[in-house]
Amino acid sequence: xxxxxxxxxxxxxxxxxxxxxxxxxxxxxxxxxxxxxxxxxxxxxxxxxxxxxxxxxxxxxxxxxxxxxxxxxxxxxxxxxxxxxx
Length: 86
Fold this sequence. Notes:
Blueprint: H1 3-15, H2 21-28, H3 32-42, E1 46-48, E2 51-53, H4 59-80
Antiparallel strand pairs: 1-2
């Protein structure tokens, strides 16, 4: 598996994300198991129904989500009087 194959798989998926792994592999000219490995391990995509989609949030976005959620919880608790500010 080389960078060229990863780029080709990504280009095929961007063109039509409804393709199966077998169809993508045939289009790129690699075996089905290599294609699946590229999609899941290299491109971090996962299957939703019959299509491959990229991860929805990056790690930084996930960390930001946790921070914002924690701040909102603290604000809510302080407003309701269930949290005392020490």
